[in-house]
Amino acid sequence: MTSKVTAEEANAFLTKAFNSSQNRSEVILMEDGHAIMRLKAGPEHLRPGGYISGPTQMTLADSVTYMAIFTRLGITPMTVTSNLNINFLRPCIGEAVIAEAKLMKLGKTLAVAEVEIRAEGSDKVASHVIVTYSIPAS
Amino acid sequence: MTSKVTAEEANAFLTKAFNSSQNRSEVILMEDGHAIMRLKAGPEHLRPGGYISGPTQMTLADSVTYMAIFTRLGITPMTVTSNLNINFLRPCIGEAVIAEAKLMKLGKTLAVAEVEIRAEGSDKVASHVIVTYSIPAS
Amino acid sequence: MTSKVTAEEANAFLTKAFNSSQNRSEVILMEDGHAIMRLKAGPEHLRPGGYISGPTQMTLADSVTYMAIFTRLGITPMTVTSNLNINFLRPCIGEAVIAEAKLMKLGKTLAVAEVEIRAEGSDKVASHVIVTYSIPAS
Amino acid sequence: MTSKVTAEEANAFLTKAFNSSQNRSEVILMEDGHAIMRLKAGPEHLRPGGYISGPTQMTLADSVTYMAIFTRLGITPMTVTSNLNINFLRPCIGEAVIAEAKLMKLGKTLAVAEVEIRAEGSDKVASHVIVTYSIPAS
């Protein structure tokens, strides 16, 4: 099955919905239950030594899960994060960050996704995240 | 026991260490194992309807835990977040956000804090966070 | 407000619903949004050195949250655990274990409780748990 | 690389170290950073309707992570669970349960594993678990 929302539509939604700090991240893949975003790291995302900050990684995990849900439900802005659990495994060092979300479960009230965050070009996972969203009753 | 770092010293450290998006948050209390930060919400922290965004709350929880660790260890920039688990309980709506961290454990390798995030003036907890930091070997 | 279920009723329910390994634990307090259980430690709960095992603590946290939900909703066996996050802070050593749950949120679809596990007689928290239950649509 | 401990050695260790309620679970695979356990469900593991209980799944996730660590470090009984985060995705119904752990990270002080629990014969994940163990200083 294909995604209900294309990467272009997802990016158009994000540009309209969020503010300037988001304009360095873009959706690069939208498939059924699967989304990938890429963030070009700017000064506000970095710590001394070129490390991508923890908050940057958490924010990206949250966003890419939002997108993964859209692949199944279409654009549903009223879904909200219920829980996020992140384990920082290794330093994330690079000019860009890749966040990949795969839906583990999409029920009537909850969606649960597994997200991997890594520096672009690296095959090692920097952080591993489980993100749970509440699906509002329609 | 008093904190090893005063609120003033903590704020001076934060101003030097981080970049512009942090300049709306300040440390307002530093006690032994206990820290409180206050964030004046700006456009980059808000979602339509005046909701304080999830990422804003996660970032603040991460920062105030960092501060709570400083109250015991002094300024130790090499401590890094290992795990963060956040439950969003209620919408956080207000002009400012209060984040309060209490250390539950400070061992040789790990520090674990409990953090409550709420809108200033509200007695209801918007999000509850457990943040774990790794303490590097000295 | 008082609990919708008394400690006696809770214990009667547990005795009927679960099997023999549970008969060492009992509900000792049921108040609105607040429940306490006590487990008399048997060989199956202990590790060498008298440590109360991790699984014992997790199981007790799960049960006492179930009870805390009953204090508000009455006996609702169809509620099921959705997520459990436990941090083991200190060894739990003792002849009995106390588990205390306080509901942080009770919504239409989710209940979230904070649980502290400690050895009876100790004022130090052995493990801290956040337990989330799904409330089925009625 | 092969595991430092074979399935036979792992089972011999478990038989000696733990007590009777464990004798229905066995290690069926030990590879480098990868372990699988199988539990034959008994009355104490089941809820009405043939559901494998949450505590059974949490306990198994904890054990199989312990085994996954042994594949890299050899038999190291002093490693202890630091954190466990479980998401129950679907009911687990079956006569036996399979738990599979893969180490995501093995550092000097922490090991983090991803665990999937499913009913034997099912391709759907019943629960997804992230288990963190502390590695004691040697």
UniProtKB/TrEMBL annotation, chains A, B, C, D:
> Could you tell me which residue ranges the Thioesterase domain spans?
49-125
What is a single Pfam family found in this protein's UniProt entry?
Answer: 4HBT
Asked if Hydrolase is a keyword of the record, the answer is yes
Q: Which UniProt keywords apply?
A: Hydrolase
Extract the InterPro entries matched here: ACOT13 (IPR039298), HotDog_dom_sf (IPR029069), PAAI_dom (IPR003736), Thioestr_dom (IPR006683)
Q: Record's superkingdom?
A: Bacteria
Which Gene Ontology terms cover its molecular function? fatty acyl-CoA hydrolase activity
Family indicated by similarity: Belongs to the thioesterase PaaI family.
Q: Which NCBIfam families match?
A: unchar_dom_1
Instruction: Please state what the protein is called.
Output: PaaI family thioesterase
